[in-house]
């Protein structure tokens, strides 16, 4: 018989200790260890569902040969959501959706469930945070009250699974949220590591046996990570992150893990009075309202999965009165900015060590690919020299530590998107897509010093543009 004893579990990483500690040795978190009661031993697990037997059950074994079919998918009715999931929900799959509070997770799932219900599919929405009347109020505000979506306000996992098993299996079941669920097989409070893991395991087992696609909504911590044990992210089939700044009106749905599709696709939504609206052309949204005559702005032709995106890079370089100048970055990797600054000083012939540098990706989008190096460098040189970059020009390319401009992937797709939005020129690495795309001309670069020379020559302030030149005092205008 399993032995019942007290254990102490870290609520951040799931580490288990035999006594209480103030700091977790695994994740260095303070006051995250909570006492929990559970069963341990070889037979530990769901107590009420575990059969009493002395021998194991014999199951059938299959070989590698056999018919392989494409996993059937259920379209959600929202194109941007289908893009991220890889074409729709796979039957029997489990998706973990995380995001900041108030970012729009429940709104997106309500719209997806209503769209699927209108196609005749059975959709169940289980809320552990709101009453049924509150969910109806949101649906009425979004104009979705006529959709045949089944609602319930319940937190007991066993009751939820038993209810969903009645009648025709649902095509989609939404659990909002997994941190509010609890199972009778675990003696701990809802939201703890043990409860989250046990509840998720029960729901995953139901999804695999019934063929129902299950979406688990997860809260996030202060640093943006999904709260609870990381083992849940390994148990589910896909992990999606709903990102965005509440100061901006658009949201980004990004796939972090996907067993049935790509992990580098994004879906773009715009928050409106009637809920989330799809953005079929996000480049036009990110470039809306940009100032063409302001120095320090460059348009970057980036890629998010298979989707090209054009976004504005804003830079401000100002003389610093501090002993250690500031480096502030929003939407890009600060370490990458430090590298670009070092390359510009060492191989571009310009001096930035006595200036404050502020970098911002307009619109709140986060960029991770190194192809943005060239656009960032162009914006920095433009702000330092006071030269305005041509408004009809896009930039993309990776900068090496030697100052060489290195080629990047999917250059034709970037050029095609720039041409579609009315741009006439692209500054890019040499050797990829030279010659342009139709009416788009290209300027191929080998070294960062070539771009610095071209920008600095048009600026009101003097900037050294060649390697080996002594950096002048560019605090005064010529």
From TrEMBL:
<comment type="function">
    <text>DNA-dependent ATPase involved in processing of recombination intermediates, plays a role in repairing DNA breaks. Stimulates the branch migration of RecA-mediated strand transfer reactions, allowing the 3' invading strand to extend heteroduplex DNA faster. Binds ssDNA in the presence of ADP but not other nucleotides, has ATPase activity that is stimulated by ssDNA and various branched DNA structures, but inhibited by SSB. Does not have RecA's homology-searching function.</text>
</comment>
<keyword id="KW-0862">Zinc</keyword>
<dbReference type="Pfam" id="PF13541">
    <property type="entry name" value="ChlI"/>
</dbReference>
<keyword id="KW-0227">DNA damage</keyword>
<protein>
    <recommendedName>
        <fullName>DNA repair protein RadA</fullName>
    </recommendedName>
</protein>
<dbReference type="InterPro" id="IPR003593">
    <property type="entry name" value="AAA+_ATPase"/>
</dbReference>
<keyword id="KW-0067">ATP-binding</keyword>
<keyword id="KW-0863">Zinc-finger</keyword>
<dbReference type="InterPro" id="IPR041166">
    <property type="entry name" value="Rubredoxin_2"/>
</dbReference>
<dbReference type="InterPro" id="IPR027417">
    <property type="entry name" value="P-loop_NTPase"/>
</dbReference>
<feature type="region of interest" description="Disordered">
    <location>
        <begin position="458"/>
        <end position="478"/>
    </location>
</feature>
<keyword id="KW-0238">DNA-binding</keyword>
<dbReference type="InterPro" id="IPR014721">
    <property type="entry name" value="Ribsml_uS5_D2-typ_fold_subgr"/>
</dbReference>
<comment type="similarity">
    <text>Belongs to the RecA family. RadA subfamily.</text>
</comment>
<dbReference type="InterPro" id="IPR004504">
    <property type="entry name" value="DNA_repair_RadA"/>
</dbReference>
<feature type="region of interest" description="Lon-protease-like">
    <location>
        <begin position="356"/>
        <end position="478"/>
    </location>
</feature>
<keyword id="KW-0479">Metal-binding</keyword>
<dbReference type="Pfam" id="PF13481">
    <property type="entry name" value="AAA_25"/>
</dbReference>
<keyword id="KW-0234">DNA repair</keyword>
<comment type="function">
    <text>Plays a role in repairing double-strand DNA breaks, probably involving stabilizing or processing branched DNA or blocked replication forks.</text>
</comment>
<feature type="binding site">
    <location>
        <begin position="99"/>
        <end position="106"/>
    </location>
    <ligand>
        <name>ATP</name>
    </ligand>
</feature>
<dbReference type="Pfam" id="PF18073">
    <property type="entry name" value="Zn_ribbon_LapB"/>
</dbReference>
<dbReference type="InterPro" id="IPR020568">
    <property type="entry name" value="Ribosomal_Su5_D2-typ_SF"/>
</dbReference>
<feature type="domain" description="RecA family profile 1">
    <location>
        <begin position="70"/>
        <end position="220"/>
    </location>
</feature>
<keyword id="KW-0547">Nucleotide-binding</keyword>
<dbReference type="InterPro" id="IPR020588">
    <property type="entry name" value="RecA_ATP-bd"/>
</dbReference>
<keyword id="KW-0378">Hydrolase</keyword>
<keyword id="KW-0346">Stress response</keyword>
<feature type="short sequence motif" description="RadA KNRFG motif">
    <location>
        <begin position="257"/>
        <end position="261"/>
    </location>
</feature>
